[in-house]
TrEMBL record:
It comes from Streptomyces osmaniensis. This is NADPH-dependent FMN reductase. NCBIfam families: FMN_reduc_SsuE. Keywords: Flavoprotein, FMN, Oxidoreductase. It comes from the Bacteria. The gene is ssuE. InterPro entries: FMN_Rdtase-like_dom, NAD(P)H-dep_FMN_reductase, NADPH-dep_FMN_reduc_SsuE. Residues 3-143 form the NADPH-dependent FMN reductase-like domain.
Length: 185
């Protein structure tokens, strides 16, 4: 099956965005894909701040993008836009780093006022990087994502169903096998 790079653009170590992505990574693995997680916050700050294209961590991240057949991009929404941390990484990648790739954009945020951030802020940047296909994305409200004391993640039923649907569409676009797994909350 396909190799998928699952990128969290959240700067927070306790990020709901990153936890949600890792939750969806499991679903993609169940579809038969090889999923590689990448939390942008783990890249060295000096490489991102100084736009050091040759820093070993940036070279390695670029290689992960090259290797992947599909890319899941997840970001929290701040001030109606994707995170600055994600922007820093995208700026350091080659212009056509998404050429030939299938991309799934996802976002989380505190208010429905930010729902269009995927289409009006993130999608144009991703599109400029030459992907073969950007599948429909999804915005999930922070209040619909809860983390248990044991670190387990639960998503409210409606959003869980929608996330399962966009994740399955992305998987099928990459040649994944259909699954009858119920949307897990």
């Amino acid at each position: 099956m396909a190799t998928i790079l699952s990128v969290s653009g959240s700067p927070s170590a306790t990020s709901r965005t990153a936890r949600l992505l890792r939750h969806l990574d499991d679903r993609l693995t169940d579809h038969g894909h090889d999923v590689i997680p990448l939390d942008v916050r783990t890249l060295p700050a000096e490489a991102l701040l100084h736009a050091d294209f040759r820093h070993p961590a940036i070279v390695e991240a670029t290689a992960l993008f090259e290797r992947a057949d599909g890319i899941v991009i997840g970001t929290p929404v701040y001030k109606a836009a994707y995170s600055g941390l994600l922007k820093s990484l995208l700026d350091l990648l080659p212009q056509y780093a998404l050429a030939g790739k299938t991309v799934l954009p996802l976002a989380t945020g505190g208010t429905t006022a930010h729902v269009l951030a995927i289409d009006y802020a993130l999608r144009p940047v991703l599109n400029s990087m030459g992907p073969a296909h950007i599948t429909p994305g999804w915005f999930t409200l922070d209040k619909d994502i809860s983390v248990g004391d044991d670190g387990s993640l639960a998503v409210a039923p409606g959003p869980a169903e929608a996330l399962a649907q966009v994740t399955d569409q992305f998987s099928l676009a990459l040649g994944g096998r259909p699954t009858l797994l119920a949307a897990t909350g």
